[in-house]
Amino acid sequence: MSQPGITTWLPPNDIADRFRNDGETIKLASTDYGHIVQEIPAKVFHPTSINDTASLIKFAYNNSSVPITIAARGRGHSVRGQAMARNGVVVNMTSLENRINGSGISVSTSPSLGYYADAGGEQLWIDVLHATLEHGLAPVSWTDYLYLTVGGTLSNAGISGQTFRFGPQISNVHELDVITGKGDLVTCSTKENSELYYAVLGGLGQFGIITRARIALEPAPKRVKWLRMLYNDFSAFSRDQEHLISTNGRKQSNAFDYLEGLLLLDQGPPEVSFFPVPDHSRIISLVTKHSIIYCLEAAIYYDDHTQNKVDEELQVLLKGLSFLPGFVFEKNVSYVDFLNRVGSEEQILRSKGLWDIPHPWLNLFVPKSRILDFDSGVFKDIFLKQNIPSGLVIVYPMNRDKWDDNMSVIIPEEDVFYVVSLLRSSGFNNWEAFDRQNGEILQFCDNVGIKVKMYLPHYETQESWINHFGSKWVSFRERKAQFDPKMILAPGQRIFNK
Question: Residue 136: left (phi > 0), alpha (psi -120 to 50), or beta?
């Protein structure tokens, strides 16, 4: 079965049986978690080895008669078609899940690196967690949702509440294996093929497909003291967040291990399932009274050796904070349950048919110097004056010095900047209203000079991409010419492919 309007080409014999174009396979590769963009590929490739993928890319690179574009797809958790390839080939990375030692993940140690995990780019972070915990170890930097592939998050950055202290996931990788846009399989690190290493991390899939990552590990904690504190004043909320992330040494014992924040808005019943049931009514009353309540979320990890000191450390960390008296709540949970908290929510949403629906998300990095303006112009104005449910709104700061500026990822210039994630869900008939509001938010920032940067970016014009990359655009374009000169890879990002 071939798709209408697609120029056909014959794949090389050695990998010909890896291609599929049946209706169900094509349908799956034509959509993603966002359910907003649909792009139909010509074929879907199911590799059985890394060499298969390298052969595919080399074939595309050497094929002068028909341009062939290729997109790597893990679990398709992008929201704007980033893992799609219209009329091209989508590589189903999950076909490789069991290739390293039968599991795709191995744990080792060396005198120079300490403990580390080698994980295939197709592996899920939840599986990395379970595999490393068998050795009493774990990575230190995570995403909020663990059913994402290693290669997928490293192609963006990989952020969560640990980033302020341990840096994004891309700052915790020793080495990569990458198949470039020429079909070459290259091992790279800060010391070997460093230009490719820095390009690929945060590079939006433009320079190569990550087939292996060597991830730094540390001893894993067992338990988590998980807190939420409520504020009715954004200045106090952000001031306390910034104070708490100022203690951010990797080895410090008197610091939180995780810090995020979220909004409780008076737009329908606020999400209060975290809090004790007897407190639900007074929390809802608080939200009704103030229209917006800001919730600071923090966690401290511990194990058998430190459990006797955790409450004492916690009191020191909370001293001087300005949360509303009587509105601090805590849970004591296992480390795995804490890290996999969104996975648990996923099962509930799936059971209600609320998972495979449109997700018109907007993820921004906002400079610290303008976060109060963002609060007044977006949270208090656009959100509260429009009858559009805001969904889950996450707000938390991180430190620029935990990022490596040699990498491709784009962040604000200031020493502290905020993540603002608008994680909305909609029906198939009304996602455009959310999208228009996203556009209004971006227009507001532009009008008042808030220099936001989009995380998980998507733009329709190259001019917008040039503006996004700013001073890094020239090097980004040069790296593209070096590692993917025929612009084969990741066409769904629409940076170089119209």
Answer: left
